[in-house]
């Protein structure tokens, strides 16, 4: 194995390491070996701390250590990496002198989460006003609820003079939208660990912190750019700029420095090199400072740009200069930020009051309190802090560290020194960092790898051997992800280079990775293909992975219909299970005897099973409580014989429970009732698990004195129905992380993930501790601030890179086979931000096989109701006579169809479909309600217009793929909203394109037609130009495009 030397080094307990271990390389096994080695050389269990990020991971790691110790009593395994673990555990067993009794006292193993370490710190050093330990709020709904309470209390302070102006100012900024105000508060409280300790100085907003952060971000970008520019822009290039007519370019005599003072020079250089779409310029003119007489210089510079066309990193860094945040804040920006900061400070105070009243706190508060405790008590040495015993720290999944957790660890390591016998061991895989939504910063891994942490500089080890997957899977993944992952790393944006793996096995399978594209969002075809894969692999353990739970909606009914058992991990909400609904109805009925609907529901439930006719008898007794009715002999005689029998059994089961329910807790009463109505031996395994979950919810609600149906429903919303173990498993990619399966199916590659709402305040904490914060634009403003725009761009980049890593995690779960399934969108292309978009260039040959005939075959017949009309319409051509002043009712109907046809034509333009088959057009028209009488005429019209468009000499220019292109672009001015058919930037000119299907009138020349269109639409297009001139600082041109006459008509 190529990395055997690195694995051996990692077991040197005298040195600190940071280990990068790709999927399947046995990183947790290596960490376990390091842990056992530390124990085997005499380190006591209390002197070694192992930390990870979830309770589940803690449990798994503890189990692995215990099982390793137990396995030492058995035979030596065959796998080389497991043999090392066995040998270490075997050696450890010989040290009976230590008498640790670890198998009998596993609590001596100090394995915990980082949050657990924070809790330990706060328990050792509680705040002065904390008399009793507080309970951590674990449920999302409970945290969100208390955040909302704090937000409401904050708004109520509007009458207090100290806060009135700030609250009113923020409300006005949010257009007096109270819900937005609440969302601002709750969103910021949920991530207050990122800003609370940095944003304020002596209780007020520290604007310098934000300005310094902006400067650090800018300088970091310029440093990367300068390093690239030094390689490609030499003295010859700058000599060519000497005669340029633009003063700002004439001043640049060499590559500018990476300083704030040089930012304007960088912007000038960027504008010279790139178009506004971020592409290398292919021509220069007087607007760029190169008049006609500088022809020689122009040609030389264009030649340089042509030579640089392959330098993607340089181009992206140059383009990024225009996206950098504000250097300085305007007075208005400072005022708004100060008011928001004042409101947020009040919201935090309100939240702390609620925490004290309820004797609770959240994980963020635990971390903040731990940080404060370390500062107040000046406890910087973790060894002193934890009984002066800790000598070694091991952290698993280090790539998932947040800046808050990193800061805590850094403080605890402050007094550690190289050579003092203490070691730090960090292991993780940056390529598997997929928890951005939890504020994990993969850039921290890169930072420690390069510069260390505190005074510790761990040695870097790179593993490469994959023990999980076959050689074909490993090599296939290498081929795919070496093309998908970025070529350069960027800690700010989370860009991680791909590291190749090497298979430990030698078997090969040509069909290890299979790709199946489908056209026109045919998710039903995907599901059928999955069923075929399952049926073709009757013995293998198969997992079906999706990006979001909602993406399983098409496969579940297919599997059920085929009677295939499956285990769906966290896919079916608990409240949707029928047994859960019965338990909820029983809860409502027991809490309120007058809840008629709940009582009817439990009488209908399987444990009683009344027929509908019997329920009708009971429901018609409006004035009486159902519980009293079912005990009334006269009422029971009106039921069927079956109903009477069932009712007697039911009443016998619940009467005593209800009559004595005041003697017990509600949880006990409910448990008695369930046991009476549904004895344990009558429940399935799944129902038994649901019963346990539901009773735990009731217990938690009762303990928190929140036993109401609303709270119970909120708790149910966060839970999922359990499922029984099966060969076929369904889960999200996040839930599959750390697991392995013989065959992996990744479904829904073409599905677009849900877009998050734009935050009211965009906040980003970077791996170098820089904090950028910017509010959304004022409702009357057209543009966001540069900082807000920059943060949106960074978030977009971070999400793009995490999408790559998420696909990597999914595909590296497989041992032997991977099956990839995805559907194209209506344009027969892969949608942006999807896995399919990443894979499209790699599997392009299979995309090309999706011909029009395939698309037509994939279309299911759509039957829509035909529109019934009594009068035969006029011919479509008659509608084009726009001189008619009077229109009858029938003509009004046909004008509606003209609008419909125009809309359909523009959709084909928008999606780049210029050769749709007639059948697909027919389907679309039927969907719109067009009847058989007219449909062929309308199909011919669409086909004719598209053919004319394709044959037009302007076609290539008009429908060229540009990054700046927008279709159906909506803009809002002070007076109205406008929608522009097509908008793009070409050679620094913004083009407004308006499509018109108007034809020439009889005996009308082309010149007359053009004049008529100008007369009719000039005012409209010029009004568009006015609106867009407020958004774009460039030349704007307006054009009418009339495909019927193949003319572009410029409006000036």
TrEMBL record:
Entry keywords, A to Z: ATP-binding, Helicase, Hydrolase, Isomerase, Nucleotide-binding
InterPro entries in the cross-refs: DNA_helicase_UvrD-like_C, DNA_helicase_UvrD/REP, P-loop_NTPase, Restrct_endonuc-II-like, UvrD-like_ATP-bd
GO cellular component: cytosol; DNA helicase complex
Reactions mediated catalytically: Couples ATP hydrolysis with the unwinding of duplex DNA by translocating in the 3'-5' direction; ATP + H2O = ADP + phosphate + H(+)
Listed name of the protein: DNA 3'-5' helicase
Domain UvrD-like helicase C-terminal: 482-738
Enzyme class, spelled out: isomerase
UniProt GO molecular function: 3'-5' DNA helicase activity; ATP binding; DNA binding; hydrolase activity
EC numbers, comma separated: 5.6.2.4
Binding-site list for ATP: 21-28
Highest rank taxon of the organism: Bacteria
GO biological process, one term: recombinational repair
């Amino acid at each position: 194995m190529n990395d055997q030397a690195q694995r051996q080094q990692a077991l040197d307990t005298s040195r600190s390491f940071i280990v990068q271990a790709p999927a399947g390389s046995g990183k947790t096994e290596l960490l376990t070996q390091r842990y056992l080695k530390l124990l085997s050389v005499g380190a006591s269990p209390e002197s070694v701390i192992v930390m990870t990020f979830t309770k589940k991971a803690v449990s798994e790691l503890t189990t692995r250590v215990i099982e390793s110790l137990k396995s030492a009593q058995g035979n030596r395994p065959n796998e080389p990496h497991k043999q090392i673990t066995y040998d270490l555990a075997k050696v450890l067993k010989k040290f009976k002198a230590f008498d640790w009794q670890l198998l009998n006292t596993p609590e001596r193993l100090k394995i915990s989460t980082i949050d657990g370490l924070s809790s330990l710190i706060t328990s050792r050093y509680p705040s002065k006003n904390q008399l009793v330990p507080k309970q951590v709020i674990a449920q999302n709904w409970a945290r969100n609820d208390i955040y909302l309470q704090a937000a409401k209390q904050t708004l109520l302070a509007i009458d207090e003079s100290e806060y009135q102006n700030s609250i009113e100012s923020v409300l006005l900024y949010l257009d007096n939208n109270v819900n937005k105000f609440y969302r601002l508060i709750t969103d910021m409280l949920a991530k207050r660990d990122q800003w609370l300790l940095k944003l304020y100085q002596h209780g007020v907003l520290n604007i310098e912190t934000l300005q310094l952060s902006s400067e650090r971000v800018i300088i970091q970008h310029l440093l990367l750019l300068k390093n690239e520019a030094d390689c490609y822009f030499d003295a010859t290039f700058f000599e060519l700029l000497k005669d340029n007519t633009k003063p700002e370019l004439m001043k640049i005599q060499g590559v500018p420095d990476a300083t704030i003072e040089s930012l304007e020079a960088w912007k000038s250089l960027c504008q010279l090199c790139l178009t506004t779409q971020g592409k290398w310029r292919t021509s220069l003119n007087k607007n760029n400072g190169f008049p006609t007489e500088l022809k020689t210089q122009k040609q030389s510079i264009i030649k340089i740009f042509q030579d640089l066309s392959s330098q993607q990193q340089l181009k992206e860094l140059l383009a990024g200069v225009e996206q950098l945040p504000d250097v300085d804040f305007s007075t208005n920006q400072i005022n708004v930020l100060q008011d928001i900061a004042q409101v947020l400070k009040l919201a935090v105070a309100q939240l702390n009051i609620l925490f004290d009243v309820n004797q609770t706190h959240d994980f963020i508060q635990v971390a903040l309190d731990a940080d404060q405790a370390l500062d107040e008590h000046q406890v910087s040495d973790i060894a002193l802090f934890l009984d002066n015993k800790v000598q070694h720290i091991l952290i698993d999944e280090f790539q998932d560290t947040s800046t808050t957790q990193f800061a805590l660890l850094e403080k605890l390591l402050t007094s550690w020194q190289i050579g003092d016998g203490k070691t730090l061991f960090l292991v993780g895989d940056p390529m598997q960092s997929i928890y951005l939504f939890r504020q994990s910063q993969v850039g921290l891994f890169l930072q420690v790898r390069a510069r260390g942490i505190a005074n510790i500089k761990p040695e870097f080890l790179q593993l490469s051997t994959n023990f999980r997957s076959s050689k074909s899977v490993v090599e296939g993944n290498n081929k795919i992800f070496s093309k998908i992952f970025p070529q350069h790393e960027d800690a700010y944006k989370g860009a991680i280079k791909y590291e190749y793996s090497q298979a430990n096995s030698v078997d090969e399978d040509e069909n290890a990775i299979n790709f199946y594209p489908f056209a026109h969002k045919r998710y039903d075809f995907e599901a059928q293909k999955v069923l075929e894969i399952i049926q073709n692999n009757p013995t293998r353990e198969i997992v079906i992975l999706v990006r979001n739970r909602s993406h399983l909606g098409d496969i579940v009914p297919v599997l059920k219909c085929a009677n295939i058992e499956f285990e769906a991990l966290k896919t079916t909400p608990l409240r949707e299970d029928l047994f859960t609904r019965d338990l909820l109805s029983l809860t409502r009925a027991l809490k309120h005897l007058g809840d008629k609907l709940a009582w009817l529901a439990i009488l209908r439930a399987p444990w009683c099973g009344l027929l509908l006719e019997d329920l009708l008898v009971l429901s018609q007794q409006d004035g009486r409580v159902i519980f009293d009715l079912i005990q009334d002999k006269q009422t029971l005689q009106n039921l069927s014989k079956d109903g009477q029998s069932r009712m007697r059994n039911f009443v016998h089961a619940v009467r005593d429970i209800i009559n004595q329910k005041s003697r017990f807790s509600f949880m006990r009463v409910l448990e008695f009732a369930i046991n009476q109505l549904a004895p344990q031996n009558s429940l399935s395994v799944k129902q038994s698990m649901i019963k346990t979950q539901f009773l735990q919810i009731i217990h938690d609600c009762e303990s928190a004195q929140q036993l109401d149906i609303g709270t119970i429903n909120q708790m149910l919303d966060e839970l999922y129905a359990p499922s029984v173990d099966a060969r076929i498993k369904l889960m999200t990619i996040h839930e599959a992380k750390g697991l392995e399966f013989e065959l992996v199916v990744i479904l829904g590659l073409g599905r677009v993930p849900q877009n998050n709402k734009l935050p009211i305040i965009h906040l980003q904490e970077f791996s170098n501790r820089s904090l950028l914060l910017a509010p959304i634009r004022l409702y009357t403003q057209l543009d966001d601030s540069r900082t807000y725009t920059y943060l949106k761009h960074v978030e977009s980049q971070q999400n793009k890179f995490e999408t790559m890593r998420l696909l990597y995690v999914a595909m590296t779960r497989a041992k032997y086979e991977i099956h990839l399934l995805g559907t194209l969108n209506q344009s027969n292309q892969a949608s942006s931000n999807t896995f399919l978009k990443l894979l499209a260039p790699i599997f392009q040959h299979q995309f090309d096989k999706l011909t029009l005939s395939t698309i037509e075959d994939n279309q299911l017949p759509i039957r829509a109701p035909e529109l019934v009309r009594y009068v035969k319409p006029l011919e479509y051509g008659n509608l084009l006579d726009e001189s008619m002043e009077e229109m009858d009712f029938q003509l009004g109907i046909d004008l509606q169809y003209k609008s419909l046809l125009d809309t359909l034509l523009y959709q084909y333009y928008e999606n780049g479909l210029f050769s749709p088959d007639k059948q697909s057009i027919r389907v679309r028209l039927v969907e719109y309600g067009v009847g058989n009488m007219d449909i062929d005429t309308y199909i011919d019209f669409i086909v004719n217009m598209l053919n004319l468009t394709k044959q037009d000499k302007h076609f290539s220019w008009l429908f060229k793929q540009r990054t700046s292109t927008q279709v159906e672009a909506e803009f809002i001015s002070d007076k109205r909203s406008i929608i522009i058919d097509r908008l793009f930037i070409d050679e620094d000119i913004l083009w407004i394109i308006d499509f018109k299907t108007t034809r020439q009138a009889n005996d009308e020349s082309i010149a007359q037609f053009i004049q008529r269109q100008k007369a009719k639409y000039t005012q409209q297009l010029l009004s568009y130009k006015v609106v867009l001139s407020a958004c774009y600082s460039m030349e704007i041109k307006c054009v009418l495009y009339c495909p019927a006459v193949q003319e572009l008509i410029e409006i000036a």
